[in-house]
Amino acid sequence: MTTDYPGNLFVVAAPSGCGKSSLVKALMEVDAGVAPSISHTTRAPRGQEKDGREYFFVDNAAFDRMVAEDAFVEWAHVHGNRYGTSRQGIEARIAQGGDVVLEIDWQGALQIKQRFGNAILIFVLPPSWEELRARLERRGEDAPEVIEMRLNNAREELEQAGKFDFVIINEVFERALFDLKTIVHAQRLRYSAQRRARAATFQALNIA
Length: 208
Ligand code: 5GP
Known about the structure:
Elements: E1 9-13, H1 20-30, E2 34-36, E3 40-41, E4 56-57, H2 60-68, E5 72-78, E6 81-86, H3 87-95, E7 99-103, H4 106-115, E8 120-125, H5 129-139, H6 144-158, E9 166-169, H7 173-188, H8 191-197, H9 199-204
Bound molecules: guanosine-5'-monophosphate.
């Protein structure tokens, strides 16, 4: 069963190193109309991460309970941990016509599309394998074997890109951000969205 809401649900997925987080962060800095959803995860906090800001950090038992209570609209195993989007985090906002952006993995994205037929799935691609490897190495966060694992995972993840609605190739960051803003803007210009947002204008023009 799919559910439709007046708000837009944007889902951005990409293998690690493609710049997904930076793109979503930059979008939210320039567009106050898009709110993030804070996921739950069983992984431990890293560095400066704070509970309730980057993620809600929960143990396996708490995650199991939420799964049993059907509290997630999607969840998946990613890199050995579980991550999920809570219903509570998004439904109220999109039901009121607000936009939400989810930064999740491809498995979660496809679950969202099944539940929310109008969700907009966006896949971010690197410009090339060489560039993806170079970015992972430049980050300096991972050991060489972890980088190899991420690249191997990326090969499988990229096979999913064809199931998404939009593709952004993140070669030049500003261009990729422009592409993301354009997708968001275009959704807001859809007939149904305009009719809702500009009800008085439509009425004055006698448009049903
Ligand atoms: P990280 O642990 O590096 O923050 O995230 C690892 C991966 O999990 C990223 O690809 C991220 O997008 C994904 N992820 C984060 N939150 C969720 C979620 O709620 N659901 C799913 N399916 N994936 C998520």
